[in-house]
From TrEMBL:
<dbReference type="InterPro" id="IPR016166">
    <property type="entry name" value="FAD-bd_PCMH"/>
</dbReference>
<dbReference type="InterPro" id="IPR016167">
    <property type="entry name" value="FAD-bd_PCMH_sub1"/>
</dbReference>
<dbReference type="Pfam" id="PF01565">
    <property type="entry name" value="FAD_binding_4"/>
</dbReference>
<dbReference type="InterPro" id="IPR016169">
    <property type="entry name" value="FAD-bd_PCMH_sub2"/>
</dbReference>
<dbReference type="InterPro" id="IPR006094">
    <property type="entry name" value="Oxid_FAD_bind_N"/>
</dbReference>
<keyword id="KW-0560">Oxidoreductase</keyword>
<dbReference type="InterPro" id="IPR036318">
    <property type="entry name" value="FAD-bd_PCMH-like_sf"/>
</dbReference>
<comment type="similarity">
    <text>Belongs to the oxygen-dependent FAD-linked oxidoreductase family.</text>
</comment>
<dbReference type="InterPro" id="IPR006093">
    <property type="entry name" value="Oxy_OxRdtase_FAD_BS"/>
</dbReference>
<feature type="compositionally biased region" description="Basic and acidic residues">
    <location>
        <begin position="12"/>
        <end position="27"/>
    </location>
</feature>
<dbReference type="GO" id="GO:0016491">
    <property type="term" value="F:oxidoreductase activity"/>
</dbReference>
<feature type="region of interest" description="Disordered">
    <location>
        <begin position="1"/>
        <end position="65"/>
    </location>
</feature>
<feature type="compositionally biased region" description="Basic residues">
    <location>
        <begin position="1"/>
        <end position="11"/>
    </location>
</feature>
<dbReference type="InterPro" id="IPR050416">
    <property type="entry name" value="FAD-linked_Oxidoreductase"/>
</dbReference>
<keyword id="KW-0285">Flavoprotein</keyword>
<dbReference type="GO" id="GO:0071949">
    <property type="term" value="F:FAD binding"/>
</dbReference>
<protein>
    <submittedName>
        <fullName>FAD-binding oxidoreductase</fullName>
    </submittedName>
</protein>
Length: 535
């Protein structure tokens, strides 16, 4: 195995620290990890979506401590039995956790605000996370120690790598940041990589490319690969190779009661099914084993057009996707580029149509496949043969943290393209993107998983520009997705869950949603992972 970036170890960390106590025979979980809550809370499993949204509006942003099984009063912790007195989280509580971990721990009343603020920060600057405690995991066992401690203290837990997938703000509880867990180990002979929870798509590409291999990464280089894959993982290689979740062969996880498990089709198969596509509600994932793809280069890049040619461009796009082989992935976005030096001069301040191209084959055939698009006058053409490590340049997604407000809907049929021209607005406060799906994305893998809405043929996604009024942008975005609602397959794809969403059940067909909810109740009966969108 070729290795990169081995996490540092600490002499105080022993196998004894990682050991899980003997399970109680009656409860099926460690005796001292039983989570006792007030009776009024124990019976409350879920708030309605309407209640959650009303709370978000009242707070001025999506700072929700709710979701399924919300605890009442974030700082009221119940430990032990008897009177079940609440316990205030303090610096002393942080010190208790720090004694068990390699990584540092901060509480929100600590003098070291720099450490706390750095630990809670993520890509989406619209979310102001305010956890009681932040643990910066340095080794995978820190995650297990943190979750066991949280169960003892009655704290909820959220894991965050880069923060791209956060949909609502965390208030209270324990936030475990995994951004230091960036190791990617590659076994070229088996074509398998073990990818740690904090590794980004860029980390994965850098580790696999020297072996002539790659993983089905997404459009943004800075996204955490593990969390992206758990949500399904829709990337530019998807039409040829399926969802990223389809290529997961094993997972290293920590359950809500602190057990460390190796999960595969042979071991804990229902958890193996649910985690691959079901997101992070069932367990905390510290690493995944991924089957790699032999690929060193591709024909890809961007075609940029004046946005006033939107109708012509949409028709040319339609003609391409109707005959597209699985090896060709296309998407189209309409946006106004900012006037900044990092944007090519010909695009600055202009409303443009941007077609993204990724073709896994010979350049000559790729050029023929997109000839209809190139027949229109272009402002810029960057499509070329490129190394797979440049894959993120195709979409050219933002790399730096920014406020994010999104909406999305997965669609069936070409009728969405008929309606798209009427939805284009040069003055819209958001980017509008449409991705072509189908191909291998429709296929169930050899070991079926929980990826929802495989029948979707198109995915529409909107993202508000930084600096725009969030309320106004969100309303405009809803008008666009609402205009296409009758063409929806039933909801969004899990990777594209709209901002502020407290419930992800619409990301799955009804039968899948019911099964995932059952698994969530079984594997996290006390709702330790309460901040993950409910299933």
């Amino acid at each position: 195995m070729a290795r990169r970036r081995r996490p540092r170890l600490h002499p105080r960390h022993t196998d004894h620290d990682r050991a899980v106590p003997r399970a109680d025979r009656l409860q099926g979980r460690p005796r001292h990890l039983r989570l006792l809550r007030p009776r009024a809370v124990r019976g409350q499993r879920r708030r309605s979506d309407g209640d959650a949204r009303a709370h978000a509006r009242g707070a001025g942003h999506d700072r929700l401590a709710a979701g399924r099984g919300a605890r009442l009063g974030v700082l009221q912790r119940t430990v032990g039995s008897g009177a079940r007195r609440g316990r205030q989280v303090s610096g002393a509580t942080a010190a208790l956790l720090a004694a068990r971990t390699v990584g540092p721990v901060w509480d929100r009343s600590a003098d070291d605000r720099a450490g706390y603020d750095a630990g809670r920060s993520g890509f989406n600057l619209a979310l102001d996370h305010r956890p009681d405690l932040v643990l910066a995991a340095q080794v995978p066992s820190d995650v297990a120690a943190g979750i066991r401690f949280a169960a003892e203290q009655g704290l909820t837990v959220e894991l965050q790598a880069t923060g791209h997938g956060a949909h609502r703000a965390m208030d209270g509880g324990l936030l475990i940041t995994t951004r230091a867990l960036t190791e990617v180990s590659v076994d070229p002979a088996r074509r398998v990589a073990r990818i740690s929870a904090g590794a980004t798509s860029a980390d994965v590409l850098a580790a696999t490319a020297p072996h002539g291999l790659t993983a089905p990464v997404g459009s943004a280089a800075t996204v955490g690969y593990v969390s992206y894959s758990l949500g399904g993982g829709l990337g530019m290689l998807g039409r040829a190779h399926g969802y990223a979740a389809d290529r997961i062969r094993a997972l290293q996880v920590v359950t809500a009661d602190g057990r460390e498990l190796s999960v595969s089709s042979e071991h804990h198969p229902e958890l193996f099914w649910g985690l691959r596509g079901g997101g992070g509600k069932l367990a905390a994932v510290t690493a995944i084993d991924v089957e790699l793809i032999p690929l060193s280069e591709l024909y890809g890049g961007g075609l940029f057009f004046d946005g006033v040619r939107g109708v012509e461009l949409i028709e040319a796009f339609r003609s391409c996707i109707v005959t597209a082989p699985r090896e060709l992935s296309l998407s189209i976005a309409f946006l106004r580029f900012p006037r900044v030096p990092t944007v090519p001069e010909t695009l600055r301040g202009r409303y443009c149509g941007h077609v993204r191209v990724a073709y896994l084959g010979e350049a000559a055939r790729g050029a023929r496949l997109i000839a209809g698009l190139r027949a229109l006058p272009t402002l810029l053409d960057t499509v070329r043969t490129m190394p797979v490590t440049d894959l993120a340049s195709v979409h050219a997604d933002p790399r730096n943290p920014m406020p994010v407000c999104t909406d999305s809907v997965a669609l069936r049929g070409e009728r969405a393209l008929d309606r798209l021209p009427a939805l284009l607005d040069p003055d819209a406060p958001f980017v509008l993107e449409l991705r072509h799906l189908g191909g291998a994305l429709v296929d169930q893998p050899a070991h079926p998983n929980a990826v929802g809405h495989r029948a979707a043929e198109l995915n529409l996604f909107t993202s508000a520009y930084p600096g725009t009024d969030r309320g106004g942008a969100a309303a405009a975005q809803r008008r666009v997705t609402g205009a296409l609602a009758e063409l929806s397959v039933g909801g969004p794809l899990r990777n594209f869950l709209p901002s502020g969403a407290a419930d992800a059940s619409a990301c799955y067909e009804p039968g899948l949603a019911v099964e995932l909810a059952r698994l969530a109740t079984r594997w996290d009966p006390s709702d330790v992972f309460a901040f993950a969108p409910a299933l």
